[in-house]
Write a structure and sequence with these properties.
mainly alpha, elongated, RecX_HTH_3rd
Length: 190
Amino acid sequence: MSESEDGGRSPRARSRRVADLTPEEARKKAKEICFDLLATRSRTKDELRKALRRKGFAEEIGEELLGKLDQAGLVDDAAFAEQWVRARHNHQGLAKRALVAELKRKGVDSTLAVEAAGEVDRDAEEERARELVRKKLRTMTSVDEQTATRRLLGMLARKGYSQGLAYTVIKEELREAGAESTMLDDVALD
C-alpha cells in the first residue's frame, strides 16, 4: 500500500474515497465510524455529526444515522450532559460555569447544559473548591501568602469558580492552614 492509499491521505483524498462509495457502503462506513467513536466514550450528536463531516460523508447520511442512533438510545445529549457534569466536577473540580461552557462546546443545547450543571449545588461547588485549595496549598509550602493567594485565585478562576466564592474559600483555608495574616480581609466580597 502506498502513502497515498493509507492513513496518510489528505482530507481531500479521504473525501474522494467516501464519494466513491455507494450510498449503502457509505451508510455502513459512517455507522462503523460512529460505533468506533461511541466505543471509546459517550458522544453528543454534534460531536458525531462533526466527525462524519470531517470524514467527508454527505449531510443526509449523517442525519439519517444520527436519527437511528438517537432512536436506539445510543446517543442522548441529556444523559451525556449529566454524565459529563458528574465526572468533570468530581474529577477535574470544574465549577458550573466551566461545565456549561464545555457542554456548549461539545454541541449540547444551552438549556440542557444549564440543567445538567444545575446538579452541582452551591454547597457542592464550595466543598470542591475547598478540596482543590487544600490540595494546592500542600504543594505551596515555600511560597509567601501573596503568591499563594494569587496562584490559588488563578487556579479557581480557570476552573470556573466565581470570584466571590474563590476569595471566601481561599481566605478561610489560608486561616485554617495557619497563615499569619490574610490579605483578603480587606477585599470586598460579592
